[in-house]
Amino acid sequence: MFDRIKSDIHRYIRLDADVANPSFYAKALIILGEAPLHALILYRFLNWSQRKIKIGVIRKLITIITIPFSFWYKAIWGINIETEAAIGKGFYIGHPGGIHIGPIRMGENCNIGHNVTIGIGGRGEARGIPEIGNQVWIGALSVIFGKISIGDHTTILPGTILSKSVPDHVTVAGNPGRVILHDTDNDEIIFGTIVRPMDFKPEI
């Protein structure tokens, strides 16, 4: 749990800091000020407690104690991450609001925007939950559902409605979602590119 939380915090500092080597004060502001990060830490703790704590009474007590916090993030910040979800380390939620993540499977170093729904869907044999690979970027207003798999290094553009599997290293867009580019690299949007103040050259 702590290793994953540490990786999550590292991702937030890297993506939200405006300099390459932020000060302790700047890091503290990011950690204390990012509601999505707080919701993610709460999910990590609840997920860990449900998997690792064997005494049922203690698990239930933890759930009861954390209900007000879960309600706060759902009602005020619009972030709901199901405890049963299995999300790899280094997860980054760009902005709060309209986020629902069901009992999905997701790899490491993934990014999502606001107003994103990922959960159970489909009919018959197609009904199930998505399995999302490593380093997947999911844009705002996207909906992903059903018994599908999303390959590593995939980029899902904003507003995409996806209910079919897609391979690695592709860019997906549209409703219904379809592959529009192959052999794409999303390192820059996943990990961010920090532009230092001295790099700015104002036009004259």
Q: Helices and strands in order, then pairings?
A:
Elements: H1 2-16, H2 24-33, H3 35-52, H4 56-75, E1 79-81, E2 86-87, E3 92-93, E4 99-101, E5 105-106, E6 111-112, E7 117-119, E8 131-132, E9 137-138, E10 143-145, E11 149-150, E12 155-156, E13 161-162, E14 170-173, E15 178-182, H5 187-191
Parallel strand pairs: 1-4, 2-5, 3-6, 4-7, 5-8, 6-9, 7-10, 8-11, 9-12, 10-13, 12-14
Antiparallel strand pairs: 14-15
Helix pairs in contact: 1-3, 3-4
Task: Note down, in words, how this protein is organized.
The chain has a single domain, classed as Hexapeptide repeat proteins (UDP N-Acetylglucosamine Acyltransferase, domain 1, 3 Solenoid), CATH 2.160.10. 33% of the residues lie in helices and 19% in strands. The chain is built from 5 helices and 15 strands. The strands form 3 sheets. A 6-stranded mixed sheet has the order 3-6-9-12-14-15. It has a 5-stranded parallel sheet with strand order 1-4-7-10-13. Strand 14 (170-173) and strand 15 (178-182) form a beta hairpin. Helix 1 (2-16) packs antiparallel against helix 3 (35-52) and helix 3 (35-52) packs antiparallel against helix 4 (56-75). The protein starts with a helix and ends in a 13-residue tail after the last helix. The model is unreliable at 194-204 (pLDDT under 50).
